[in-house]
Amino acid sequence: MVIGLRDNNGIVNRLEPLRISKIEQTTRTWTRQSFVNFFLHFTQFLKKHVTDEYSLDHKDAVLFYFSPSSKTITMTKSSDPKYQFLPDWFFNGFL
Fold first, then answer.
1. What is the pLDDT of residue 95?
2. Taking the CA atoms of the chain, what radius of gyration do you get in angstroms?
3. What is the DSSP letter of 82?
4. Which of 5, 9, 30, 82 could form a disulfide with 14 if both were Cys (CB 3.0 to 4.6 A apart)?
5. Alpha helix (H) ranges present in the chain?
6. What angle do CA 39, 63, 43 make, to 5 degrees?
7. Is the pTM of this model over 0.85?
8. pLDDT at position 54
9. Distance between CA atoms of 70 and 78, rounded to whole angstroms?
10. What are phi and psi of 63, to 5 degrees?
């Protein structure tokens, strides 16, 4: 799994690999079971709401924002290149 590490403003500015078996040792707020539950719900949400096909010509990024005060997550799409961090060779394996 690859996780995004946030700065103090909540912006993901670094990616790092993390083994699911190491979640409890590495994080202070997640257990393996809570992560699996979150992951299952999140992937079901993605399957329902993120339906556009990705192509090398159409690289919209799906952005998620968590509001701690309202405990809600909002989703937006952006074609801004600053959000496109995965290299083309990565997607060539899936397209």
1. 65
2. 15
3. G
4. 5
5. 23-26, 32-49, 88-92
6. 20
7. no
8. 67
9. 23
10. -105, 135
Q: Any idea where the domains of the chain sit in the sequence? A: 1-49, 53-95
7 exposed, middle or buried (CB, 10 Å; 0-12, 13-18, 19+)?
A: exposed
Angstrom distance (rounded) from CA 50 to CA 55: 14
> Token pair for residue 83?
């959000």
- Give the integer Cα–Cα distance in Å for 73 and 71: 7
**Strand ranges inside the chain, DSSP E:** 2-6, 12-17, 61-67, 72-78
Q: What is the mean pLDDT of residues 70-84?
A: 86
Note the pLDDT tens digit of each residue in 7-54.
Answer: 887 777 888 888 877 777 777 777 878 888 888 988 898 888 887 766
The phi and psi torsions of 45 (rounded to 5 degrees) equal -60, -45
Structure tokens at 42: 């999140």
Structure tokens at 28: 């202070």
Range 67-78 average pLDDT: 85
